[in-house]
Design a protein that fits this description.
By secondary structure, the protein is of the alpha+beta class. Among the domains are: 44 residues, no CATH class; 115 residues, Orthogonal Bundle (Topoisomerase I, Chain A, domain 4); 105 residues, no CATH class; 82 residues, RNA polymerase II/Efflux pump adaptor protein, barrel-sandwich hybrid domain (OB fold (Dihydrolipoamide Acetyltransferase, E2P), Beta Barrel), CATH 2.40.50. It is 31% helix and 20% strand. The strands form 16 sheets. Strands 22, 26, 37, 38, 39, 40 and 42 form a 7-stranded antiparallel β-sheet that branches. A 5-stranded antiparallel β-sheet has the order 11-20-18-14-13, with no helix packed on it. β5 and β6 form a beta hairpin. The radius of gyration is 37 Å and the shape is globular. The two termini are 49 Å apart.
């Protein structure tokens, strides 16, 4: 390794010998070290020699991939069998109604995910222990070709795949490429390959367009002066995400220039102002401080969009100060845009393999007994997979003692359990080897890369709904209705059912009882006449009635609202709150409201509004504030609303068209819905079920095996037991069910909606859109985290304690830091290193404008977008002219422009016109008599002038 250094420069003792295996990272470090120590010429020689030595050794080694090099770990079968046992248990629990659909699906995904990870770890352990010189291992782990994910697919297990919609398929590919895939697995695999091809095509285009926009926004940024004399700068710190470090401070500050001197605790000078930071100095500085104040292009004072050498720092190609005339804007744009294409390609290789982060598990290393020495605060929770676990609230220790011949061995093993972990074992519980004791939560790491979504559960067959625990649902309150002026008054004692939509407060369950549906093909006549109120479950039809022509004009009520008042009449506007209900509500009445004193009430509707004990979805969002007047003595107001929204409650058709309308269905119990057992005169004690009892899957009804289908006992005699098939569903506490006890449902009709969180697939598909969202300053759906709303919030905060001018500057600094950290996070999490200075140049273009709120005497208009520096300059000039009149100065607020908008807002017009919206920009420029001073590179290229960069910079000054 030292043959390239001339003998004169090294004594015999100083010769350097590196005794370690060199992978890609180590070779790269060696070249960097050589470059910084011995310069360009010597490093080129070194690289040349490395290449020669590499080729000669590769030739003599003759490394190639043979099928025998793909060694499958022996434990794979064991792991897969364990997973299948767990899944069998999950299936039984789901059939018994102990898990919701989501929990069951989540368990399947989680089990296979963990199994795949365990196999992958085993592959690495096996290679390292038994076959370090295996070609597969050498290629993947040296960084020459391939990665761990591909090795896993070759010799581990291919794992879970996602379908074209991005949803995970719960059928994993258990085979690897060495064993060969089954036909089903092959077809599922094809999804991923296809997704990769399409993705690559789309992403390449997106990435190219991103680069073009970046180049356009920053093409005029050129290094012009040596030092702009600014005392300002920015603080750099380590970027971390939870406990995970994304980008170290020592990496960030290399190649930057210090904005103020750094001293140690005993006041020794470590580094002085305007000194550039080398790798060695960076390590020294980070020992003494966790944040460093450096010069930055964001705070550079050079006018006309140029920058100075000290604010920019090192040119990363030469590792010394950037030369004057360098087109740093274009370098920045290309540095940010180029990895986009790399990131794109990455999807292609893994081919849609699901690799959500697996939470860290703590497993028992041997059989033994668990105990805790002191109590840990926490609470019992139900996990996303339906397990009951204990969530710890502070760090604690778990001890596992080994048992041999029923005696406890002395020294127990100690496991550290961090705060917010899930414990699956309790005090003195016996555990077996490899049993999961705890799961380390990703709660503190902030790795909540999950998306909230909801899933509707559909019925597998037609039947009747039956709730097993009505007490956990909100009770159906019943309301008396009184009336004076209806055509057919409802008597005082008549009770009418209330609203159908329920809020589920606790987890509970309901059963769908099996039944076949039959449509009546005979004409069906309704009993109801004009103005009748139908009670649900009332007998609505009867076959073969004579149809009376006089009675056939029925009114169809859909979403009509009837109000009844009683006692004193009052202004309806003051008393009745208008409500909009969702369609498909059944006939229902809302609980009455009694008013006897003055009330103020404010009805705020935000998607859902809870009134007393019901939950409604309103179709229109409105806030109404109404004053309720005091009623005259002893009077009370009963208010109810009757809604008819079931479209076939009423018919309004001619006799000859009658059979064409939608006909009601009736459910008939057939033999297909029943299960029966012969008791063969067995004593009644052996059959432990009662009439009307719900029996779950797997319950032993009589001696022998358990039942294979859940049901309800409908008949029990001495010789025979008959059950009606049923299926239990578990309702989660955040579920939404719009069915009632006794409702009939068709096969494949929705029963309930469950909301849940899912893991994001690790795919750069999030990368480019996320970067684009930041660079374009897009408003997101909720609008609370968009850049412009954030900068406004900060501006309002700073205004309270600073002058308006300082508040603008501070809020701009805040948002600049926010964007830089966000973009660095996306790139670093994909393993791509980009220097901060590139991002800073782009961010400066996005945040250099302000919006005029009040123009004062500046001659501008409200809403104009101008340069922040220019606005401050004009205000200073007005200040100088007229000290006494404060109103003359303009007021403005900070804004963030997306890169497209920023490109079009430039002072010249040639560059913008050649980018987008050419006609609009040229016609506006003509109308406003704009001039272009040809300061950027693009304008000069268009006109064929010499570029104002490099040596051309001096010809234009």
């Amino acid at each position: 390794m030292y043959s390239f250094v001339p003998n004169s420069s090294l004594n015999h003792q100083d010769k350097i010998f590196f005794n370690l295996p060199f992978d890609k990272k180590k070779v790269s470090d060696l070249i960097n070290w050589s470059f910084s120590k011995y310069g360009e010429k010597k490093t080129v020689d070194l690289v040349e020699k490395l290449k020669s030595i590499g080729y000669s050794h590769a030739t003599s080694a003759g490394i190639s991939l043979g099928i025998d090099d793909l060694k499958i770990p022996a434990d794979k079968k064991v792991f897969v069998n364990e997973a299948e046992q767990q899944l069998n248990f999950t299936k039984q629990n789901f059939e018994k109604g102990h898990l919701t659909t989501i929990e069951s699906f989540g368990r399947v995904i989680d089990t296979w995910n963990k199994t795949s990870e365990r196999i992958k770890k085993q592959v690495i352990i096996d290679f390292k222990a038994f076959d370090v010189l295996n070609p597969v291992f050498m290629m993947a782990f040296s960084g020459a070709r391939g990665n761990i994910s591909q090795v896993r697919q070759l010799v581990g297990m291919r794992g879970l795949m996602s379908d074209p919609q991005g949803k995970i398929i719960d059928f994993p590919i258990q085979s690897n490429f060495r064993e060969g895939l089954t036909l089903t697995e092959y077809v599922i695999s094809c999804y991923g390959a296809r997704k990769g091809v399409v993705d690559t095509a789309l992403r390449t285009a997106t990435s190219g367009y991103l680069t073009r926009r970046l180049v356009d926004v920053a093409q005029h940024v050129i290094v012009r002066y040596f030092d702009c004399q600014t005392l300002d700068g920015i603080y750099l710190t380590t970027i971390s995400h939870g406990s995970k470090i994304i980008l170290k401070l020592s990496q960030r500050i290399v190649g930057r220039v210090l904005a103020k001197s750094i001293y140690s605790e005993n006041n020794t000078l470590i580094a002085y102002r305007n000194q550039d930071i080398t790798t060695e100095l960076a390590s020294k500085i980070t020992l003494h401080t966790s944040k460093v104040f450096v010069r930055s292009t964001l705070t550079c004072k050079v006018k006309k969009k140029y920058v100075c050498q000290l604010c920019y720092g090192w040119s990363l190609a030469q590792n010394h100060l950037v030369p004057s005339g360098e087109a740093v804007g274009i370098i920045a744009a290309q540095s940010i845009g180029e990895p986009g294409t790399q990131l794109t390609m990455r999807t292609f290789h893994t081919g849609g393999v699901f690799s959500g982060s697996v939470s860290e598990e703590i497993r028992a290393t041997h059989n033994g007994k668990v105990f805790f020495t002191n109590s840990t605060p926490g609470k019992l929770v139900r996990t996303a997979y339906g397990q009951i676990a204990f969530l710890t609230k502070q760090d604690s220790f778990l001890f596992l003692s080994q048992i041999t011949n029923n005696d406890l061995l002395n020294s127990p093993i100690k496991y550290q359990i961090p705060a917010y972990s899930l414990l699956f074992v309790k005090q003195n519980q016996l555990v077996i080897k490899q049993q999961i004791l705890a799961e380390v939560s990703t709660f503190l790491n902030g790795e909540n890369q999950s998306i909230s979504s909801s899933e509707t559960v559909y019925s597998d067959f037609s039947g009747m709904i039956s709730f097993s625990l009505n007490d956990t649902l909100h009770k159906k309150y019943q309301t008396k209705l009184e009336s004076k002026s209806q055509q057919k008054p409802i008597s005082e004692s008549k009770l009418i059912n209330t609203t159908k939509r329920k809020l589920i407060s606790n987890s509970s369950e309901f059963w769908v009882l099996s039944a076949q549906s039959e449509t009546f093909l005979k004409p069906v006549n309704f009993y109801c006449f004009n103005g009748d109120f139908i009670q649900y479950h009332a007998n609505l039809y009867k076959s073969n009635l004579k149809f009376v022509p006089e009675k056939k004009s029925f009114e169809k009520y859909v979403n009509n609202i009837q109000y009844y008042d009683y006692g004193q009449s009052v202004n309806s506007e003051q008393l009745i709150t208008e409500k909009y209900f969702r369609k498909n509500n059944y006939f229902s009445v809302i609980n009455h409201q009694k008013t006897d004193n003055i009330h103020d009430f404010l009805m705020v509707n935000n998607q859902h509004c809870v009134s007393n004990h019901f939950q409604f979805d309103y179709e229109k969002s409105s806030i109404k504030y109404k004053q309720i007047e005091k009623l005259k003595s002893d009077s009370s107001q009963l208010q109810g609303e009757v809604i008819f929204a079931k479209s076939n409650n009423f018919f309004n058709t001619d006799l000859n068209q009658y059979t064409k309308g939608p006909l009601p269905k009736m459910y008939v119990l057939t033999d297909a819905d029943l299960m029966s057992w012969d008791l063969n005169g067995q004593s009644n004690q052996s059959c432990k079920v009662k009439l009307g009892q719900y029996v779950r899957y797997g319950t032993k009804v009589i001696k022998g095996n358990g039942i294979t289908q859940s049901g309800i006992v409908i008949s029990k005699t001495k010789d025979k037991l008959v059950m009606r098939k049923a299926k239990p569903f578990l309702l989660a506490s955040n579920g939404d069910c719009s069915l009632s006890h006794g409702d009939f449902v068709n096969s494949q009709s929705p029963l309930l909606t469950l909301s849940y969180k899912t893991l994001k697939n690790d795919d750069i598909v999030q990368g480019i859109p996320k970067i684009e969202q930041l660079f374009e300053a897009r408003e997101n759906m909720k609008n609370d985290h968009s850049l412009n709303s954030l900068v406004k919030k900060q501006f309002e905060l700073y205004k309270e304690s600073y002058t308006k001018q300082d508040a603008v500057r501070k809020s701009v600094k805040y948002i600049q830091q926010y964007i830089i950290d966000g973009i660095q996070y996306v790139y670093q999490s994909q393993g791509v290193n980009i220097s901060d200075k590139h991002v800073e140049i782009i961010v400066k273009q996005m945040t250099s404008k302000v919006k005029i709120i009040s123009p004062g005497n500046t001659g501008l208009f409200t809403g104009d977008i101008v340069d922040l520096d220019w606005a401050e300059l004009v205000n200073r000039a007005l200040d100088y002219e007229n000290n006494d009149n404060e109103n003359k100065k303009s007021e403005y607020e900070p804004i963030v422009l997306g890169i497209t908008k920023a490109s079009l807002e430039t002072e010249g017009f040639l560059s913008a016109a050649s980018f987008q919206e050419t006609i609009k920009i040229l016609s506006q420029a003509a109308y406003f008599k704009k001039r272009d001073f040809l300061r950027g590179l693009k304008e000069n290229v268009i006109l064929g002038h010499l570029l104002p960069a490099g040596t051309g910079l001096f010809s234009t000054t």
